[in-house]
Amino acid sequence: MLYGVANSAPAKQTANPHALNEFRAAFEGRILPIADCFEHYAAEKTCLRRAGRPVDDFDLMIGCTALRHGLTLITRNTRHFSGIANLALENWIDTAPPVEGNDAR
């Protein structure tokens, strides 16, 4: 997001930093910290690369953050995350559970 602000069109360079600060304030205390995920990230990246199954850096960081915080990662792209050891994945799009009280008649 900082890159997007820095790369803004000149007409938006004044408004976008303010919009980013409002966004940050709206999510204060609800964004998972990642600093304590870097060691697991490095180890996992090494294992995956040696196995010939590299994962995009951002996706790997997302997966390692979910692992560190004991969370299930909800994504449609389960194939891309499936190489991350012990990561719980769910796809709610392609395997959506039936909605209660919504019977198709």
Give an account of the 3D structure.
The protein has 105 residues and is mainly alpha-helical. It folds into two domains: 1-31, no CATH class; 35-90, 5'-nuclease (Rossmann fold), CATH 3.40.50. The chain is 44% helix and 4% strand. The chain contains five helices and two strands, in the order H-H-H-H-E-H-E. The protein has helices at residues 2-6, 15-26, 38-50, 57-68, 78-81, and strands spanning 73-74, 89-90. Strands 1-2 form a two-stranded parallel ribbon. Helix 5 (78-81) links the parallel strand 1 and strand 2. The chain is extended, with a radius of gyration of 18 Å. The termini are far apart. The mean pLDDT is 89.
CATH superfamily of the largest domain: 5'-nuclease
- Here the CATH topology of the largest domain equals Rossmann fold
Largest sheet: 2 strands, parallel
Number of strands: 2
Distance between the termini: 45 Å
**CATH architectural designation of the largest domain:** 3-Layer(aba) Sandwich
| Rounded Rg | 18 Å
Summarize it:
With 105 residues, the protein is mainly alpha-helical.
List the helices and strands and how they pair.
Elements: H1 2-6, H2 15-26, H3 38-50, H4 57-68, E1 73-74, H5 78-81, E2 89-90
Parallel strand pairs: 1-2
Helix pairs in contact: 3-4
Descriptive tags:
2 strands, 105 residues, mainly alpha, 5 helices, Rossmann fold
